[in-house]
């Protein structure tokens, strides 16, 4: 098992900062300071980034050249819930669509099969498909 930990800090603005490994990450709100992407964009970026990384790893293992991959992730969200308004929609995304433009010597069926395998191995994708227990407490 491996544990990943991220600790964030928000001070007097909407900006949220974290030092993740050797990297500084910033999340912000466009209407506030717009010094970084918002949390929802960051969430979708994490999914696309994981799919891309697992694609590179899987292609290498399968012995073919992945010249490139462009992953587009779209999420549809009704902002009513996050704004504290009543809604029958989930607070999070109603659905998420992944489209991958795979630059490799595979036919269309091969590209689809490859993407299915990649998504099955992607931890971020897996966390979206299966409910992961999340515990929360204040200190």
Reading side by side through the largest sheet, how are the strands ordered?
A: 1-2-3
Mean pLDDT: 96
* DSSP strand tally: 5
Strand content bin: 15-25%
CATH superfamily of the largest domain: K homology (KH) domain
Q: Number of folding domains?
A: 2
- Name of the top-level CATH class of the largest domain: Alpha Beta
Taking all Cα atoms into account, the compactness measure Rg is: 18 Å
Instruction: Give the helix tally.
Output: 3
- Summarize the amount of helix as a percent range: 25-40%
Sketch the topology as an H/E string, one letter per element: EEEHEEHH
Q: How widely separated are the two ends? A: 26 Å
Task: Give the biggest sheet.
Answer: 3 strands, antiparallel
CATH fold node name of the largest domain: GMP Synthetase, Chain A, domain 3
Please mark out the parts with pLDDT under 50 across 5 or more consecutive residues, or reply none: none
| Helical/strand content category | alpha+beta
Q: Would you identify the CATH architecture of the largest domain?
A: 2-Layer Sandwich
Write up this protein.
With 139 residues, the chain is of the alpha+beta class. The protein has helices spanning 39-62, 108-121, 123-129; strands at residues 8-10, 16-20, 23-27, 68-76, 95-103. Strand 2 and strand 3 form a beta hairpin. Helix 1 crosses helix 2. The chain is globular. The protein starts with 7 loop residues before the first strand and ends in a 10-residue tail after the last helix. InterPro entries: KH_dom-like_a/b, OsmC/Ohr_fam, OsmC/Ohr_hydroprdx_reductase, OsmC/Ohrsf.
